[in-house]
Write a structure and sequence with these properties.
Layout lengths: L1 H23 L3 H6 L12 H22 L4 H22 L3 H23 L3 H6 L1 H20 L1
Helix pairs in contact: 1-3, 1-4, 4-5, 5-7
Length: 150
């Protein structure tokens, strides 16, 4: 039972944190006014994509915590979550696309580092981060394009 309580805590931390930051930094009129690249997805795609990704992030974090709560992979997991939670306030809140691009590139690097670190010890946790890496690589490209176009 204790094991599943810790999973619930990870889900609450990651999903709850993501939802709070998302609502606090809604794109709004500023984002709507930006020139978008042709590959910009419709706004409705972001919420379901991030919800699924946050579940995967939480499960990978929980599995890593269960194996080695003070290990390097767990520290990298914490770093990626902090960078993840920093991006929206930087991009949407402060409207600083350049610094947000730096944040998202560091986020992508930490995601890849987590995959590498987790791969030999818990391949499933590594795989859980692969869609996350793909989405963040896409989001970094979108961030760079928005910076370039605006």
């Amino acid at each position: 039972m204790k094991k599943y309580l810790s999973l619930l805590l990870f889900l609450v931390l990651v999903l709850g944190g993501g939802l709070l930051i998302g609502y606090a930094t809604l794109p709004g009129a500023w984002y709507a006014s930006l020139v978008k690249p042709p590959f910009n997805p419709p706004n409705w795609v972001f919420a379901p994509a991030w919800t699924l990704l946050y579940v995967l992030i939480a499960v990978a974090g929980w599995r890593t915590w269960e194996r080695a709560p003070a290990g390097a992979a767990m520290k990298i997991w914490g770093l990626q979550l902090a960078l993840n939670f920093l991006w929206s306030p930087t991009f949407f809140g402060a409207r600083m696309m350049g610094p947000a691009l730096v944040v998202i590139v560091l986020l992508l690097a930490s995601i890849v580092l987590f995959i590498v670190r987790a791969w030999n010890r818990d391949r499933l946790s590594g795989w859980l981060f692969v869609p996350y890496a793909a989405w963040v690589a896409f989001a970094a490209t979108l961030n760079a394009s928005l910076l370039w176009l605006n």
